[in-house]
């Protein structure tokens, strides 16, 4: 009897001892050890959507960093060397920016830099302490033709629950015909430029017709223009400029009709100038940029979902990250028959 009671006591004592050891192990680990992945090589990231028909283009350089390492080995770019060489081995750009004291730098291409159609260009970029990044891109041969078929403008009444009232807004329907000349590239972005207003900010909403297969994604570093007193306004400085992207699969007999719905949405205290023109720009882009923008769209839809498949951004940068693309453009400037709303 005594032996049986003693054995049960020892069994319970061993369980209590094991539980206490487990708790002690948890407490000893809490806050005293932090697992970090291997410290990877810092690389140069660059992003550029360069319109070869425009003299205002920028390249955004950034030193990559790891969120698990709060302190960088070198928390600035330092000296940045930029070289662009054509397919004949001729250097068309050689520049050095010294003492950059941040991880990011926006470089404005000189206006005398000319990219010739169907030529291949290589960009070499090097910052202090990280490998040189390089990329070879080809200037597109042609852009599709953009024709305006018809324009209809009117007003709509929109009810705002927060204001508990209806407001009158202008809306325009612009019917466009795109004519594909059969030359590469066969991927496009449609931009609305010339956001003309009097004041600080005015948002213009635009979308494509239902039934057209396209996706919307932020196009970075592309400079769109607004007619304001202080001159061109860089869109990349005010946030992502989200535009529709599509390909030429939907063209029938090398033509694609597109209906563009445009609706100005002035902010309180801002007067929209209905007398000034807008510019519709068709940007012919390479497949690499099209795939990159599609991946950005997929990432924006899945990054907050822990059960989603991982999204990898494709890059054409060797020893680096990002995207470098040369694009071609065609545009139409027009003044829409708005009704001035007081």
List the helices and strands and how they pair.
Elements lengths: L1 H28 L14 E8 L6 E6 L14 E9 L4 E10 L3 E5 L11 E8 L5 E6 L6 E16 L4 E15 L7 E7 L3 E2 L3 E7 L6 E5 L21 E7 L7 E12 L4 E2 L5 E8 L1 H16 L17 E15 L8
Parallel strand pairs: 1-18
Antiparallel strand pairs: 1-2, 2-5, 3-4, 3-6, 6-7, 8-9, 9-15, 10-14, 10-17, 11-16, 12-15, 13-14, 17-18
Name the descriptors:
18 strands, mainly beta, disordered N terminus, 2 domains, eight-stranded mixed beta sheet, 13% helix, 342 residues, 2 helices
Structure in words:
- It is a single chain.
- The protein has helices at 2-29, 287-302, and strands at 44-51, 58-63, 78-86, 91-100, 104-108, 120-127, 133-138, 145-160, 165-179, 187-193, 197-198, 202-208, 215-219, 241-247, 255-266, 271-272, 278-285, 320-334.
- By secondary structure, the chain is mainly beta.
- It has 2 domains: 44-138, Immunoglobulins (Immunoglobulin-like); 145-313 and 327-334, no CATH class.
- The longest helix is centred in the N-terminal third of the chain and has 28 residues, at 2-29.
């Amino acid at each position: 009897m005594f032996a049986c009671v003693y054995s049960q006591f020892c069994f319970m004592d061993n369980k209590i001892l094991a539980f206490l050891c487990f708790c002690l192990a948890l407490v000893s680990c809490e806050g005293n050890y932090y697992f970090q992945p291997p410290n990877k090589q810092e690389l140069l990231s660059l992003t550029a959507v360069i319109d070869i028909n425009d003299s205002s283009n920028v390249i955004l350089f950034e030193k990559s960093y790891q969120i698990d390492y709060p302190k960088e080995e070198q928390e600035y770019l330092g000296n940045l060397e930029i070289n662009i060489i054509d397919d004949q081995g001729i250097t068309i750009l050689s520049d050095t920016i010294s003492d950059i004291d941040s991880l990011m730098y926006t470089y404005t291409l000189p206006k005398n830099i000319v990219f010739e159609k169907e030529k291949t260009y290589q960009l070499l970029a090097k910052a202090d302490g990280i490998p040189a990044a390089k990329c070879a891109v080809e200037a597109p041969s042609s852009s599709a033709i953009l024709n305006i078929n018809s324009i209809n403008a009117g007003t709509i009444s929109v009810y705002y629950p927060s204001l508990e009232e209806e407001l009158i807004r202008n809306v325009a329907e612009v019917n466009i015909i795109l004519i594909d000349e059969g030359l590469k590239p066969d991927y496009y972005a449609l931009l609305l430029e010339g956001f003309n207003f009097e004041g600080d900010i005015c948002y213009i909403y635009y979308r494509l017709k239902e039934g057209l297969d396209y996706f919307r994604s932020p196009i970075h570093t592309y400079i769109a223009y607004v007619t304001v007193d202080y001159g061109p306004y860089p869109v990349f400085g005010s946030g992502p400029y989200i535009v529709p992207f599509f390909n030429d699969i939907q063209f029938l007999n090398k033509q694609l009709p597109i209906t563009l719905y445009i609706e100005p949405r002035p902010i309180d205290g801002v007067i929209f100038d209905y007398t000034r023109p807008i510019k519709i720009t068709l940007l012919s882009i390479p497949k690499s940029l099209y795939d990159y923008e599609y991946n950005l769209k997929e990432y924006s839809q899945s990054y907050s979902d822990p059960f989603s498949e991982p999204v990898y951004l494709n890059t054409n940068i060797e020893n680096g990250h990002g995207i470098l693309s040369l694009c071609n453009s065609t545009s139409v400037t027009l003044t829409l028959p708005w009704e001035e709303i007081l």
